[in-house]
C-alpha cells in the first residue's frame, strides 16, 4: 500500500515532466520523442487501470491494484530511459560545445599569434623608420657642412681681401 501511495504521489511530478519542451526534441524521429510517446501510452493505460472497479462492492480488486502497480513501474522505467536519453543528449551537446569552444580558442590563439607577429613587425618598422630619420638628419647635416665651410672660407677671404686692400690703400 505504501508503494502505491508513493507511486501515486510521484505521478503528478512525473507527468509534469512531460510538459517540458527541450530544444532538441524538435526532430520527430528522435529516440526521446519515441520514449515520450511510449510513456504517454503507459500513462493512458494507467489512467484506464485507475478507472477499473472489479471488486464486489465497486472498489478496486487486488488484480486492479496489481495492474496499476505494474503500469506505474513501467512508467518509472520509461522515465528512467527518458532521463538516460536526456543525459546522453546533454553529454553529446556538451561535447559539441566543447569542440566548438576548442575551435574558437584555437582560432583566437592563431589570430593573437598573428597579431603579435604583426605588432612585432610594426615595432621593427617603427625602429627602422626612426633609424632612417636619424640617418637622413645626419646626411642633411653632412651636406650642410661643405656649404658652411665654403661660406666661412668666402667670408674669411673677403675679410682677408678687405684687410689687404686697406693696407695697400694706406701705404
UniProtKB/TrEMBL annotation:
Domain of life according to the entry: Bacteria
Coiled coil: 87-142
Signal sequence extent: 1-17
Record-linked SUPFAM superfamilies: Bacterial hemolysins (SSF58100)
Keywords: Coiled coil, Membrane, Signal, Transmembrane, Transmembrane helix
TM helices/strands, residue ranges: 147-165
Protein name (Swiss-Prot/TrEMBL): Uncharacterized protein
Organism of derivation: Siphonobacter aquaeclarae
Upper classification of the organism: Bacteria, Pseudomonadati, Bacteroidota, Cytophagia, Cytophagales
Amino acid at each position: 500500500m505504501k508503494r502505491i501511495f508513493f507511486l501515486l504521489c510521484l505521478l503528478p511530478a512525473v507527468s509534469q515532466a512531460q510538459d517540458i519542451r527541450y530544444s532538441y526534441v524538435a526532430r520527430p524521429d528522435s529516440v526521446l520523442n519515441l520514449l515520450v510517446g511510449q510513456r504517454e501510452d503507459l500513462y493512458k493505460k494507467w489512467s484506464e487501470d485507475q478507472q477499473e472497479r472489479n471488486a464486489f462492492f465497486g472498489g478496486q480488486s487486488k488484480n486492479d491494484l496489481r495492474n496499476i502497480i505494474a503500469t506505474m513501474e513501467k512508467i518509472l522505467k520509461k522515465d528512467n530511459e527518458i532521463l538516460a536519453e536526456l543525459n546522453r543528449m546533454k553529454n553529446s551537446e556538451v561535447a559539441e560545445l566543447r569542440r566548438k569552444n576548442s575551435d574558437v580558442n584555437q582560432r583566437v590563439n592563431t589570430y593573437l599569434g598573428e597579431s603579435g607577429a604583426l605588432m612585432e613587425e610594426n615595432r621593427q618598422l617603427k625602429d627602422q623608420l626612426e633609424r632612417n630619420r636619424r640617418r637622413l638628419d645626419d646626411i642633411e647635416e653632412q651636406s650642410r657642412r661643405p656649404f658652411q665651410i665654403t661660406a666661412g672660407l668666402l667670408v674669411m677671404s673677403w675679410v682677408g681681401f678687405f684687410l689687404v686692400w686697406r693696407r695697400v690703400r694706406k701705404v
